[in-house]
Write a structure and sequence with these properties.
alpha/beta, 10 helices, 11 strands, globular
Amino acid sequence: MGDATDLHFRAAGLRLAALAWGDDATPPALCLHGWLDNAESFRPLAEALEGARRVVALDLPGHGHSEHFGTGWSGHFVDVVPAVVRVIETLGDGGRVDLIGHSMGAGIAAVVAGSFPSLIQRLVLIEGFGPMADEADNAPTRLAKALAAERALKPSRTWPSFEAAVTARMKGLTELDLMAAHRLVERGAEAVPGGYRFRYDPRLRLPSRVRFTEDQVCAFLASITAPVLAIRATQGWPFPEEVVARRAAAIADLRVETVTGGHHVHLSHPQLVAPPVTSHLAGE
C-alpha cells in the first residue's frame, strides 16, 4: 500500500490530522482509534487491506497531531461527534463512507452511524459495541466526582527517554506488546526539555462528567441502518456478556467475528482482522 500520506481537516473549529493509505479513487473508509491512541494504530490494518479501500485514519481531537479542545471542554466523547461528521462529509463528498472504529472509536462510530445513518455505507466495530453507559441514578455522583478530578488535574508527566515513554504506554489499561506500543508512541509523544511527553490532552484521563444510559446506547444502535461487522478478540476487553447480547440484539444487520488476540487486535494481528473487514466492506 506504500507510505502513508498526511492529511489535515478543519472541523468543529479544530485542525485535525490524519494518515491515509491507498488510491484516492477508491471508496474511503474512515478509521477512529481508541482512547489515548492515535491514527498510527490503524497502519498495520491499512497495509493488510492491500488497497481494497482508501483508508483514512483520523487523530481524534486531543490525540496524536490533532488540536485539543479549548478551555471549558466537558470531556464527554460526544463532543467529538461533530468533528467526525464534518470529516465524513468532506471525505464522502456528497456520498456515503465506510466507518471503522476501535474501542472508544467504536463507541463514537456507533453514535455517528445511529445519528446520521445516511452518511454511513458500512460499519466495522472492533472491540466495541457502542459507548460506555451508566445507571441514571449515578449521574449526580458522577458529575461531582468528575468536577473534583478536574480541579485536581496536574500537567502531563515528562518521561526521561523515548524508551521510558514506550514502557509506560505498555502499562496502560490494556496490554500492548513492544512493537505496538512503539508505533503508538512514535506518533503520540513529542520531545520536550527533560525527555518525552505524550501529546494527548491530559483531560482525556479524567472521568466523564456524564454518560449515556444503557437505554440511550441501545437507541443509537437501533437507529443504525448500515450493515455492521463486530470483531471481538479472544483476550479482549471483558465486556459483560449480558450487555453485549442486548446491544447486539438492537442492531438490525449484524455479523460478529471472533479472532485471536487482545484488545488492540487490529494492531497486533492485522492479518486476522483484515479478511473479515475486506469481505464486509465488499458487501460479501
